[in-house]
Every structure is written in structure tokens, then in C-alpha cells.
Amino acid sequence: MKTTIKCLCSAAVLAFAGCSGSNEWKVSGQIEGADGQTMVLEASSNGRWFPIDSVKLAGAGDFKFSHEAAGYPDIYRLRLGDKSLYFPIDSIESVTVLSKASAFDTEYTLTGSESAEMLMHVDTRVREAIAKNGLSGIQSDTLLKRELGGMMLGDPAGIVSYYIINKKVGGVSLYNPENKVDNRIIGAVANAFDQYRPNDPRTEYLRKLFLSNRRTANGTIATIEAPEVSLFDIDLYDNKGVKHSLNKVAEDNKVVVLSFTVYGAEASPAYNIVLNQVYDKYSKSGLEIYQVALDEDEYQWKQSAKNLPWVTVYNSPADGVATLSNYNVQILPTTYIIVNGELVDRIADPAQIGTTVAKYL
């Protein structure tokens, strides 16, 4: 839902740009203590970075670049000496960078778009993880990868998800495609790009990256599919510390809406409004909602969960991604319908939840 909204918004921005005659994105800002130094704006092609513009900084270090939009989201970087600062461009937005020459790639702020702030957060978290556990422990840092995985599942077709998938730390990929769990996350991003960005030049690369590593020990292709009739149990705690079993909820109710979501996501309020309308209409007729939250911030989740009338549980970082794998959760929100204890339907469009529930009651 969030990805769809972003795609529609991007289309609207591009349409506006066509009317106004402007089809450029801009990056500007200030680099403290960089007087006399040359800063280079770079783009990449198949992993090779090349310069597209440069400026000699003077005085307060103010700078401004503009460039024609590529027609699809991309990652660019600013290079100052041997330090590089990465930023995303979704369409024709203006990104602002504030930094200083002495810590150009570590002490900076990115503003101007949600993607820019999200990418800054990713790099900040990676630096914090390295400071705490060292380079050697970065790939096995389950807390970090659980957090980044949640970000990607919240917007799998976003350019920042692509950035995370391809991020290397000390020459080692943060997400290893040969690792079964990591490759499932890569698959979620690849599938989302294939669905929402079929003409993006990265889509084919992501598809090949995922498929080339989706093999079992005997070399045969392993197909990852959502279960159709089997019901994997979920046994997690609600905001009051009470554990709820999905199997038990399914036994006690004729129809259960199984929902995976992130309350902190931009589209979450609209999604929960739809669920609330369905719940109000059918809860007395045998419907229950079992909602699994994948938020990074447990406290904020609790504040939201206490206002909801249905069963809402928290999949914490310590709980891992087994539940997501069992239910093939590749994009958030994900919604299933359980009838008489069996998984019978997966709903791609949240607007169809009500009519689908009515069909089974």
C-alpha cells in the first residue's frame, strides 16, 4: 500500500514537472571547513562511479547542483577528497546536505525527502553497529539486520531498499545472497521492483541476484510460496504482556484476518482505518483480526496498539524473521484470510478486505 502510494505520488510529481517545464532534481547545502576544496557529484553505472559535475567550495562552503531526472529513482554521491556521502533521488525533489570537511561522510544531515532521511538513518545505524561490534560482527548482527529488514519490507520497491541490499561494509555485503534468510529479503525487494518498477534498470539485476542463489543443497530450484491451507502458528505477546496463539484465535472464530504491518509506516493509519471498518461491521458475526506489528520502536507500537480493539501482537527483533518466512511476507502491509482454521486467501488490495471477509461469513 505504501509503495503504491509512493508510485502514484511520483507519477503526480512527474506530471506536474511536465506542465511546469522543470525536470531536474537538486542537491544543495553547506560543508563547513571546506574552503578551497573541490567537491564532486557522482553517479554510478553497474557499480562504477563517474563524475557528472563538480564545484570548488569557498567561504562558508555553500554549494548547489542540479541535474536532469533519470526517469527512475537512483543513488548519487558527493565526494570530498577520499570521503563519500551518499544520497537518493526519487524524482525531481531537492535534497539538502549539511556536513563538515573533517567528518564529511560520518557527521552529516540529509533532508528534503523521506528517502534521504531513511538512507541517512541506515548509514548511521551501520556506523553505530560497527562501533559496538566491529567490522567482523556486522553480518551476524541480527538486531541491525532485523531493523533494516523491517525498513525494506515496509517499502521494498524503494531506492533505499536497493541501497541496503547492495551495501558493503569492509568489502563484505551486509546482506549475503548465499544466506537463506538474507536471500528471502533480497527476494522481497526483487519481487517488489518487478511489480512496481518493471522498467527500472535495477530490476533485472535484483531478479538475477535472488534467483541465482535460490537453490537447495542438491542444486534444484527452491520455490518460495505462501502456504494455501496450512496454518503456521504465531505465539506472540500483546501490549499488555499477554501471549496470543494464532491457532487458538482461529479455533475460536469463524474468520480471522491475519495482518502483518508496521504501525510507524506512512500508510499504516489508512490501512488500520480499513481494518477498523471491517471489524466494526463483522466482529459480532464471527470475525477477529490478528495483527502482527514489525515496528522498530516497541514503545511507540504499544502506544498505538492500546487503542485498537482487535488482537495485536509484537514481533520483536529477538523473535527473528521465521514468522515472515513462514507466511512469505514480502511487502507490508500483508493481509491473509483464515476460515475455520485454514488459510484460504491473500489480499493484495486492502480495499478488498471487507468484501472478501463478507464472502466467508
Could you please describe the fold and organization of this structure?
This protein is an alpha+beta fold and 361 residues long. Among the domains are: 24-112, Immunoglobulin-like (Sandwich); 235-360, Glutaredoxin (3-Layer(aba) Sandwich), CATH 3.40.30.10. Helix content is 36%, strand content 27%. The protein is built from eleven helices and 17 strands. It has helices spanning 2-20, 114-133, 142-154, 159-165, 180-196, 201-211, 246-252, 268-282, 298-305, 322-326, 353-360; strands at 24-32, 38-45, 48-56, 62-68, 74-80, 83-89, 94-100, 109-111, 168-169, 172-173, 235-237, 243-245, 255-261, 287-293, 311-314, 334-339, 342-347. The strands form five sheets. It has a five-stranded mixed sheet with strand order 15-14-13-16-17, with helices on both faces. It is elongated and about 70 Å long. The model is unreliable at 1-21 and 220-229 (pLDDT under 50).
Give a brief outline of the structure.
This protein is of the alpha+beta class and about 350 residues long. Helices cover about 35% and strands about 25% of the residues.
